[in-house]
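STRUCTURE:
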């Protein structure tokens, strides 16, 4: 890059050769185009009538999904501005578990509206200030349309789960799956009202139908018993949870043992056997009849455990051990000698069962399980995978509502209400910021428009009908996907957590503002953005092919 020539002087280069720099309007255009292309790619998946995407990686593995964050994670996105859109989806997923597509589509629309403002020579900083003010105002407005809900409102909680699962391949069995999700979340609520959905284990098995899915009040561990002579079923289980190997530890020190006669060898082997038997006796002495071990178990120790009729599972994952502790009120012990009767967990039944082709261990009938399991069944691997993603969303969303105790109507109702109220607010602001607040209001309407478009309805007719209902004061009027008419979403039972909306608006605004404020892209030669087709400028074109994928 030359710093200009002065009367025939040689140009001064401040960047490495091969580096590329795009500045000013061109840089903004390129970034906005890339971000819009990402939003375009997931736009068609929004809502109950959204279509799915089939992602094939370079190994030929196939993922068929409707889940925004999964699509964006699977896509190999190269453009730096487009990568920021993927971050929005990831944040949304980490915070609330649902609304990933909404967040990305909103960010794309905010940038599209900003483009028109940039053409009118409005400075990006002014647009950014207006967007931030509008986002703050949106959060206030959302609070006014939020409805309180309590943990006891099982019906509402199930509706939230159904809304989160809609369009994600769960099809007809949504009702059953939703009640499983609600029951599971209720079981793991902590005393302080917080919900950690990590305490709900979701196991997936191919075989059977979606309706064969079930909730286990306790744990399911995808391992079978260690030895065929062990009992298949233990009732009144007293469970030892060990984070210690039941085998003779090899010494750290290199020690040499000289054995000169066969008797000495025999004595040495007998001593090993006695030590292992001693370990098993220590476990038996506590009255334990089930052992879950995080580490290895020696073959000889397996024999002794089987002889004692103790159901044993080894090499259990650390996370599963912690969940077992929560489910059975047991304590994970790191030394066998320290194991006491008090440390044992309790469960009504521990049993090995065959689900599909796999043998699994069920720990059931726990007294007050703070950790539960859901077993999902489906006809093919892809169905089960998508089911598990739907279930994950449902669990997270129900968890969020149980924590926040507030929900809003779905079906595009909050967005139309926001657009209406923000336009009123823009009139009170004045100045150039007014234009960017109005642009924010227009952006909100992309959600009901996209919902209508994906359901095969007319965008404009649907939006006009919705607007007129909201102007009459029906705050919860949203789009009925089957008829295309505006309907009270609270009565229809289409509801979602308030936090899904607030988080989507926040992260979409932040990302849009960040992309808008970039006026210079300097890509170094080695790797990074420089390796992109045709440097920075060529990328959106590459991305456009992808955007095309979404428009079908």
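SEQUENCE:
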């Amino acid at each position: 890059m030359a710093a200009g020539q002065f009367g025939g002087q040689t140009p001064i280069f401040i960047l490495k050769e091969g580096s590329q720099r795009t500045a000013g309007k061109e840089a903004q255009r390129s970034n906005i185009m890339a971000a819009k292309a990402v939003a375009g790619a997931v736009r068609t998946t929004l809502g109950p009538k959204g279509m799915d995407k089939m992602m094939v990686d370079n190994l030929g593995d196939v993922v068929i999904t409707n889940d925004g964050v999964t699509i964006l994670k699977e896509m190999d996105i190269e453009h730096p501005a487009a990568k920021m859109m993927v971050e929005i989806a990831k944040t949304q997923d980490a915070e609330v578990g649902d609304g990933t597509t909404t967040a990305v589509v909103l960010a794309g629309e905010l940038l599209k509206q900003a483009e028109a403002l940039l053409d009118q020579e409005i400075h990006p900083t002014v647009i950014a200030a207006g967007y931030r003010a509008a986002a703050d105002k949106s959060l206030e407005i959302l609070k006014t349309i939020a409805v309180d809900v309590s943990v006891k409102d099982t019906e509402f909680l199930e509706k939230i789960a159904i809304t989160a699962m809609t369009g994600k391949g769960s099809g007809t069995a949504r009702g059953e799956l939703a009640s499983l999700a609600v029951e599971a979340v209720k079981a793991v609520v902590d005393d302080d009202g917080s919900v950690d959905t990590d305490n709900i284990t979701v196991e997936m098995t191919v075989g059977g139908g979606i309706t064969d899915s079930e909730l286990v009040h306790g744990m399911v561990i995808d391992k079978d018993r260690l030895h065929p002579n062990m009992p298949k079923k233990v009732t009144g289980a007293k469970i030892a949870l060990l984070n210690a190997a039941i085998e003779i530890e090899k010494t750290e020190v290199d020690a040499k043992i000289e054995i000169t006669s066969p008797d000495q060898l025999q004595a040495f082997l007998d001593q090993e056997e006695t030590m292992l038997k001693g370990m098993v006796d220590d476990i038996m002495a506590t009255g334990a009849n089930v052992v879950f071990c995080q580490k290895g178990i020696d073959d000889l120790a397996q024999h002794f455990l089987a002889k004692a009729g103790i159901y044993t599972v080894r090499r259990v994952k650390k996370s599963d051990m912690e969940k077992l502790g929560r489910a059975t009120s047991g304590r994970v012990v790191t030394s066998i000698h320290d194991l006491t009767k008090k440390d044992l967990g309790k469960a009504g039944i521990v049993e090995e069962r065959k689900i599909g082709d796999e043998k699994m261990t069920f720990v059931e009938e726990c007294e007050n399980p703070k950790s539960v399991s859901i077993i999902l069944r489906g006809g093919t691997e892809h169905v089960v995978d998508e089911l598990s993603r739907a279930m994950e969303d449902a669990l997270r969303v129900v968890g969020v509502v149980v924590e926040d105790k507030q929900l809003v109507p779905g079906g595009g109702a909050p967005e139309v209400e926001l657009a209406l109220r923000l336009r009123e607010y823009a009139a009170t602001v004045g100045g150039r910021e007014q234009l960017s607040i109005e642009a924010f209001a227009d952006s909100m309407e992309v959600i009901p428009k996209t919902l209508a478009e994906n359901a095969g309805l007319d965008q404009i007719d649907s939006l006009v009908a919705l607007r007129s209902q909201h102007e009459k004061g029906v705050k919860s009027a949203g789009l009925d996907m089957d008829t295309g008419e505006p309907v009270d979403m609270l009565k229809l039972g289409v509801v979602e957590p308030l936090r899904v909306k607030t988080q989507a608006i926040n992260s979409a605004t932040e990302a849009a503002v960040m992309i808008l404020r970039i006026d210079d892209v300097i890509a170094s030669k080695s790797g990074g953005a420089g390796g992109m087709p045709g440097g920075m400028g060529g990328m959106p074109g590459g991305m456009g092919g992808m955007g095309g994928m979404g428009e079908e």
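REMARK: Confidence is low (pLDDT under 50) at residues 527-552.
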